[in-house]
Design goal:
Elements (H helix, E strand, L loop, with lengths): L8 H14 L4 H8 L3 H9 L6 H11 L2 E4 L4 E4 L3
Antiparallel strand pairs: 1-2
Helix pairs in contact: 1-3, 1-4, 2-3, 3-4
Length: 80
């Protein structure tokens, strides 16, 4: 297993934000899509707390064609 696939909580938030922006959605739209609030999306994208890691994971998996495996958040591309 390649260590470079492991990400910090900050990187997880950055990846969630990048997936959202690539999809052309604002925070309210992605919040509605995954069933949470805009403030939770914002907190998840900031990557400042593990408390919102599951929100970041839901964003990544819903928008990013990736799966996230924990507890160390291994991010892998999904085969199309």
């Amino acid at each position: 297993m390649n260590e470079s696939n492991f990400v910090t909580i900050k990187q997880l938030g950055e990846l969630a934000k990048a997936c959202r922006e690539e999809a052309g959605l604002n925070q309210n739209e992605v919040a509605s899509l995954i069933g949470t609030s805009q403030s939770n999306v914002s907190a998840a994208e900031s990557g400042k707390s593990t408390r919102y890691a599951t929100v970041a994971i839901r964003i990544i998996e819903a928008l990013g064609q990736k799966t996230v495996k924990g507890p160390f958040f291994l991010v892998e591309n999904v085969d199309s």
